[in-house]
From TrEMBL:
<dbReference type="GO" id="GO:0012505">
    <property type="term" value="C:endomembrane system"/>
</dbReference>
<feature type="transmembrane region" description="Helical">
    <location>
        <begin position="52"/>
        <end position="72"/>
    </location>
</feature>
<keyword id="KW-0012">Acyltransferase</keyword>
<feature type="domain" description="Palmitoyltransferase DHHC">
    <location>
        <begin position="110"/>
        <end position="235"/>
    </location>
</feature>
<keyword id="KW-0472">Membrane</keyword>
<dbReference type="Pfam" id="PF01529">
    <property type="entry name" value="DHHC"/>
</dbReference>
<keyword id="KW-0812">Transmembrane</keyword>
<feature type="transmembrane region" description="Helical">
    <location>
        <begin position="199"/>
        <end position="223"/>
    </location>
</feature>
<keyword id="KW-1133">Transmembrane helix</keyword>
<keyword id="KW-0808">Transferase</keyword>
<protein>
    <recommendedName>
        <fullName>S-acyltransferase</fullName>
        <ecNumber>2.3.1.225</ecNumber>
    </recommendedName>
</protein>
<feature type="transmembrane region" description="Helical">
    <location>
        <begin position="12"/>
        <end position="32"/>
    </location>
</feature>
<dbReference type="InterPro" id="IPR039859">
    <property type="entry name" value="PFA4/ZDH16/20/ERF2-like"/>
</dbReference>
<comment type="similarity">
    <text>Belongs to the DHHC palmitoyltransferase family.</text>
</comment>
<feature type="transmembrane region" description="Helical">
    <location>
        <begin position="155"/>
        <end position="179"/>
    </location>
</feature>
<dbReference type="GO" id="GO:0019706">
    <property type="term" value="F:protein-cysteine S-palmitoyltransferase activity"/>
</dbReference>
<dbReference type="InterPro" id="IPR001594">
    <property type="entry name" value="Palmitoyltrfase_DHHC"/>
</dbReference>
Length: 291
Protein backbone atom coordinates (compact mmCIF):
# COMPACT_ATOMS: atom_id res chain seq x y z
CA UNK A 1 0.00 0.00 0.00
CA UNK A 2 1.33 3.42 -0.97
CA UNK A 3 0.92 5.63 2.08
CA UNK A 4 1.76 8.74 0.05
CA UNK A 5 -1.65 8.48 -1.62
CA UNK A 6 -3.12 9.79 1.63
CA UNK A 7 -1.20 13.02 1.03
CA UNK A 8 -3.75 13.89 -1.65
CA UNK A 9 -6.14 14.59 1.22
CA UNK A 10 -4.21 17.78 1.80
CA UNK A 11 -5.91 19.20 -1.28
CA UNK A 12 -9.23 19.13 0.58
CA UNK A 13 -7.60 20.95 3.50
CA UNK A 14 -6.26 23.50 1.05
CA UNK A 15 -9.75 24.60 -0.03
CA UNK A 16 -10.58 25.34 3.61
CA UNK A 17 -7.36 27.36 3.78
CA UNK A 18 -8.55 29.54 0.89
CA UNK A 19 -11.78 30.17 2.78
CA UNK A 20 -9.72 31.00 5.88
CA UNK A 21 -7.68 33.56 3.93
CA UNK A 22 -10.89 35.20 2.67
CA UNK A 23 -12.33 35.17 6.22
CA UNK A 24 -9.21 36.81 7.71
CA UNK A 25 -9.29 39.47 4.99
CA UNK A 26 -12.96 40.12 5.70
CA UNK A 27 -12.48 40.44 9.47
CA UNK A 28 -9.46 42.71 9.00
CA UNK A 29 -11.34 44.89 6.49
CA UNK A 30 -14.24 45.36 8.88
CA UNK A 31 -12.00 46.13 11.85
CA UNK A 32 -9.56 48.49 10.10
CA UNK A 33 -11.72 50.27 7.53
CA UNK A 34 -15.42 49.97 8.45
CA UNK A 35 -15.16 50.04 12.23
CA UNK A 36 -12.05 52.12 12.98
CA UNK A 37 -10.71 54.48 10.33
CA UNK A 38 -13.63 55.21 8.00
CA UNK A 39 -15.61 56.82 10.87
CA UNK A 40 -12.54 58.89 11.70
CA UNK A 41 -12.30 60.05 8.09
CA UNK A 42 -15.91 61.19 7.77
CA UNK A 43 -16.40 62.59 11.29
CA UNK A 44 -13.08 64.17 12.18
CA UNK A 45 -12.89 67.97 12.23
CA UNK A 46 -9.09 67.89 12.34
CA UNK A 47 -7.40 68.05 8.95
CA UNK A 48 -4.34 66.13 10.12
CA UNK A 49 -6.38 63.27 11.57
CA UNK A 50 -8.57 63.07 8.45
CA UNK A 51 -5.47 63.02 6.25
CA UNK A 52 -4.00 60.21 8.36
CA UNK A 53 -7.21 58.20 8.10
CA UNK A 54 -7.32 58.73 4.32
CA UNK A 55 -3.69 57.62 4.00
CA UNK A 56 -4.25 54.50 6.09
CA UNK A 57 -7.34 53.53 4.10
CA UNK A 58 -5.54 54.11 0.80
CA UNK A 59 -2.48 52.07 1.78
CA UNK A 60 -4.70 49.33 3.22
CA UNK A 61 -6.62 48.99 -0.05
CA UNK A 62 -3.47 49.12 -2.18
CA UNK A 63 -1.77 46.35 -0.20
CA UNK A 64 -5.00 44.35 -0.15
CA UNK A 65 -5.28 44.50 -3.94
CA UNK A 66 -1.65 43.47 -4.41
CA UNK A 67 -2.02 40.71 -1.80
CA UNK A 68 -5.11 39.19 -3.43
CA UNK A 69 -3.68 39.60 -6.94
CA UNK A 70 -0.49 37.80 -5.93
CA UNK A 71 -2.38 35.15 -3.97
CA UNK A 72 -4.82 34.11 -6.68
CA UNK A 73 -2.10 34.30 -9.34
CA UNK A 74 -0.12 31.81 -7.25
CA UNK A 75 -3.17 29.60 -6.79
CA UNK A 76 -4.12 29.45 -10.47
CA UNK A 77 -0.64 29.39 -12.05
CA UNK A 78 0.76 25.97 -12.90
CA UNK A 79 4.16 25.75 -11.18
CA UNK A 80 5.47 23.79 -14.16
CA UNK A 81 5.31 20.13 -15.09
CA UNK A 82 7.54 18.00 -17.29
CA UNK A 83 6.39 18.24 -20.93
CA UNK A 84 4.65 15.11 -22.16
CA UNK A 85 7.23 14.38 -24.83
CA UNK A 86 10.25 15.68 -22.94
CA UNK A 87 11.82 12.24 -22.59
CA UNK A 88 11.65 11.48 -26.30
CA UNK A 89 12.99 14.94 -27.19
CA UNK A 90 15.91 14.46 -24.81
CA UNK A 91 16.63 10.99 -26.08
CA UNK A 92 16.22 9.24 -22.76
CA UNK A 93 17.29 5.62 -22.85
CA UNK A 94 17.16 2.47 -20.76
CA UNK A 95 19.72 3.88 -18.33
CA UNK A 96 17.16 6.49 -17.26
CA UNK A 97 14.54 3.83 -16.63
CA UNK A 98 16.99 2.10 -14.38
CA UNK A 99 16.95 5.15 -12.12
CA UNK A 100 20.31 6.57 -13.08
CA UNK A 101 21.09 9.94 -14.64
CA UNK A 102 22.92 11.03 -17.72
CA UNK A 103 24.17 14.23 -19.28
CA UNK A 104 21.99 15.69 -22.00
CA UNK A 105 23.79 18.72 -23.36
CA UNK A 106 22.64 22.10 -22.08
CA UNK A 107 20.09 20.50 -19.77
CA UNK A 108 22.78 18.99 -17.57
CA UNK A 109 22.10 15.88 -15.53
CA UNK A 110 18.71 14.28 -16.11
CA UNK A 111 17.07 11.91 -13.67
CA UNK A 112 14.16 9.52 -13.93
CA UNK A 113 10.97 9.48 -11.84
CA UNK A 114 9.73 5.95 -11.19
CA UNK A 115 6.29 7.26 -10.20
CA UNK A 116 5.69 9.43 -13.29
CA UNK A 117 7.80 7.16 -15.53
CA UNK A 118 9.35 10.18 -17.14
CA UNK A 119 12.61 12.07 -17.33
CA UNK A 120 13.22 14.63 -14.60
CA UNK A 121 14.92 17.87 -15.72
CA UNK A 122 17.42 19.52 -13.34
CA UNK A 123 15.92 20.78 -10.05
CA UNK A 124 12.69 18.87 -10.70
CA UNK A 125 11.07 16.86 -7.88
CA UNK A 126 8.02 14.66 -7.47
CA UNK A 127 5.16 15.98 -5.31
CA UNK A 128 3.29 13.29 -3.43
CA UNK A 129 0.28 15.58 -2.96
CA UNK A 130 -0.09 16.66 -6.60
CA UNK A 131 0.98 13.18 -7.80
CA UNK A 132 3.34 14.59 -10.44
CA UNK A 133 6.81 16.01 -10.96
CA UNK A 134 7.09 19.78 -10.50
CA UNK A 135 9.74 21.91 -12.21
CA UNK A 136 12.13 23.56 -9.74
CA UNK A 137 9.85 22.51 -6.93
CA UNK A 138 10.14 24.51 -3.73
CA UNK A 139 7.36 22.96 -1.66
CA UNK A 140 3.69 22.07 -1.69
CA UNK A 141 1.66 24.78 0.04
CA UNK A 142 -1.74 23.90 1.52
CA UNK A 143 -2.60 27.61 1.67
CA UNK A 144 -2.73 27.81 -2.13
CA UNK A 145 -3.79 24.22 -2.92
CA UNK A 146 -0.84 24.10 -5.28
CA UNK A 147 2.86 23.49 -5.49
CA UNK A 148 5.33 26.36 -5.52
CA UNK A 149 7.67 25.86 -8.46
CA UNK A 150 9.52 27.52 -11.30
CA UNK A 151 6.56 29.37 -12.80
CA UNK A 152 4.82 30.67 -9.68
CA UNK A 153 7.63 31.08 -7.12
CA UNK A 154 7.84 34.82 -7.77
CA UNK A 155 4.10 35.17 -7.25
CA UNK A 156 4.34 33.22 -4.00
CA UNK A 157 7.13 35.48 -2.71
CA UNK A 158 5.10 38.57 -3.60
CA UNK A 159 2.12 37.07 -1.76
CA UNK A 160 4.30 36.64 1.34
CA UNK A 161 5.69 40.16 0.96
CA UNK A 162 2.38 41.96 0.55
CA UNK A 163 0.68 39.85 3.22
CA UNK A 164 3.45 40.70 5.67
CA UNK A 165 3.11 44.42 4.91
CA UNK A 166 -0.69 44.30 5.13
CA UNK A 167 -0.78 42.44 8.42
CA UNK A 168 1.94 44.69 9.85
CA UNK A 169 -0.14 47.73 8.87
CA UNK A 170 -3.22 46.21 10.49
CA UNK A 171 -1.38 45.55 13.73
CA UNK A 172 0.00 49.09 13.88
CA UNK A 173 -3.26 50.91 13.08
CA UNK A 174 -5.35 48.66 15.35
CA UNK A 175 -2.96 48.86 18.29
CA UNK A 176 -4.39 52.11 19.77
CA UNK A 177 -7.92 50.72 19.58
CA UNK A 178 -6.76 47.43 21.05
CA UNK A 179 -5.21 49.25 24.01
CA UNK A 180 -8.55 51.00 24.61
CA UNK A 181 -10.38 47.70 24.36
CA UNK A 182 -10.35 46.90 28.08
CA UNK A 183 -11.53 50.31 29.17
CA UNK A 184 -14.30 50.27 26.58
CA UNK A 185 -15.34 46.79 27.66
CA UNK A 186 -15.62 47.93 31.29
CA UNK A 187 -17.58 51.05 30.37
CA UNK A 188 -19.67 49.16 27.80
CA UNK A 189 -19.04 52.08 25.44
CA UNK A 190 -18.86 49.88 22.36
CA UNK A 191 -21.01 47.09 21.04
CA UNK A 192 -19.85 43.52 21.80
CA UNK A 193 -19.70 42.74 18.08
CA UNK A 194 -17.40 45.68 17.36
CA UNK A 195 -15.09 44.81 20.25
CA UNK A 196 -15.00 41.14 19.26
CA UNK A 197 -14.10 41.94 15.64
CA UNK A 198 -11.40 44.36 16.79
CA UNK A 199 -9.75 41.85 19.12
CA UNK A 200 -10.06 39.00 16.64
CA UNK A 201 -8.55 41.07 13.81
CA UNK A 202 -5.67 42.30 15.98
CA UNK A 203 -4.79 38.85 17.34
CA UNK A 204 -5.02 37.16 13.92
CA UNK A 205 -2.89 39.81 12.22
CA UNK A 206 -0.30 39.74 15.01
CA UNK A 207 -0.05 35.95 14.69
CA UNK A 208 0.35 36.23 10.92
CA UNK A 209 3.02 38.93 11.25
CA UNK A 210 5.14 36.81 13.59
CA UNK A 211 4.82 33.65 11.49
CA UNK A 212 5.29 35.43 8.16
CA UNK A 213 8.43 37.12 9.42
CA UNK A 214 10.09 33.70 9.71
CA UNK A 215 8.96 32.69 6.20
CA UNK A 216 10.05 35.98 4.64
CA UNK A 217 13.52 35.78 6.21
CA UNK A 218 13.90 32.13 5.18
CA UNK A 219 12.87 32.72 1.57
CA UNK A 220 15.04 35.83 1.30
CA UNK A 221 17.97 33.66 2.33
CA UNK A 222 17.02 31.01 -0.24
CA UNK A 223 16.50 33.64 -2.93
CA UNK A 224 19.91 35.19 -2.30
CA UNK A 225 21.62 31.84 -2.93
CA UNK A 226 19.26 30.64 -5.70
CA UNK A 227 18.18 27.65 -3.64
CA UNK A 228 14.78 26.01 -3.17
CA UNK A 229 13.44 24.63 0.09
CA UNK A 230 13.96 21.09 -1.23
CA UNK A 231 17.52 21.83 -2.34
CA UNK A 232 18.35 23.33 1.03
CA UNK A 233 18.27 19.78 2.41
CA UNK A 234 20.08 18.29 -0.60
CA UNK A 235 23.15 20.52 -0.71
CA UNK A 236 24.81 18.45 2.02
CA UNK A 237 26.96 21.31 3.22
CA UNK A 238 28.34 22.20 -0.20
CA UNK A 239 30.43 25.35 0.06
CA UNK A 240 29.78 26.39 -3.52
CA UNK A 241 26.29 25.88 -4.92
CA UNK A 242 26.42 25.53 -8.70
CA UNK A 243 23.26 27.60 -9.23
CA UNK A 244 24.49 30.48 -7.07
CA UNK A 245 25.24 33.20 -9.64
CA UNK A 246 25.53 36.12 -7.23
CA UNK A 247 22.77 37.94 -5.39
CA UNK A 248 21.73 40.20 -8.29
CA UNK A 249 21.54 37.43 -10.87
CA UNK A 250 19.91 35.08 -8.37
CA UNK A 251 17.18 37.66 -7.86
CA UNK A 252 16.71 38.07 -11.60
CA UNK A 253 16.45 34.29 -12.03
CA UNK A 254 13.18 34.48 -10.09
CA UNK A 255 11.85 38.01 -10.65
CA UNK A 256 13.08 38.60 -14.19
CA UNK A 257 15.27 41.38 -15.56
CA UNK A 258 12.56 43.99 -16.18
CA UNK A 259 12.53 46.17 -13.06
CA UNK A 260 9.08 47.56 -13.83
CA UNK A 261 7.63 44.06 -13.26
CA UNK A 262 9.50 43.15 -10.08
CA UNK A 263 6.67 44.08 -7.69
CA UNK A 264 3.89 42.79 -9.95
CA UNK A 265 2.70 39.15 -10.09
CA UNK A 266 3.46 38.83 -13.79
CA UNK A 267 6.43 38.73 -16.18
CA UNK A 268 7.33 40.78 -19.20
CA UNK A 269 7.14 39.02 -22.57
CA UNK A 270 10.89 39.56 -23.09
CA UNK A 271 11.73 37.78 -19.85
CA UNK A 272 9.43 34.87 -20.62
CA UNK A 273 10.91 34.52 -24.12
CA UNK A 274 14.58 34.95 -23.21
CA UNK A 275 15.02 33.58 -19.67
CA UNK A 276 15.00 29.78 -19.83
CA UNK A 277 15.04 29.48 -16.04
CA UNK A 278 11.50 30.91 -15.87
CA UNK A 279 10.31 27.92 -17.91
CA UNK A 280 11.86 25.54 -15.38
CA UNK A 281 13.74 23.27 -17.81
CA UNK A 282 17.18 24.84 -18.13
CA UNK A 283 19.19 26.79 -15.56
CA UNK A 284 22.52 28.62 -15.87
CA UNK A 285 25.27 27.43 -13.56
CA UNK A 286 28.50 28.86 -12.21
CA UNK A 287 31.41 28.66 -14.62
CA UNK A 288 33.88 27.74 -11.87
CA UNK A 289 32.05 24.53 -10.95
CA UNK A 290 31.83 21.45 -13.13
CA UNK A 291 28.17 20.64 -14.01
Amino acid sequence: MNLFRFCSGLKVLGYFMILLVVAVVGVSYYAVVVSTWWPVLIRSDHGALSALAALIIFVFHFLLIMLLWSYFTTVFTDPGSVPEYFRREMGGGDSLEAGTSTDQGAFGSLGYCTKCRNVKPPRCHHCSVCQRCVLKMDHHCVWIVNCVGARNYKFFLLFLFYTFLETMLDVIVLLPSFIEFFSQAIKHSSSPGKLASLVLAFVLNLAFVLSLLCFVVMHLSLLSSNTTSVEMHEKNGEVRWKYDLGKKKNFEEVFGKKKAFWLLPLYSKDDLDNMTSLQGLEFPTRSDIDP
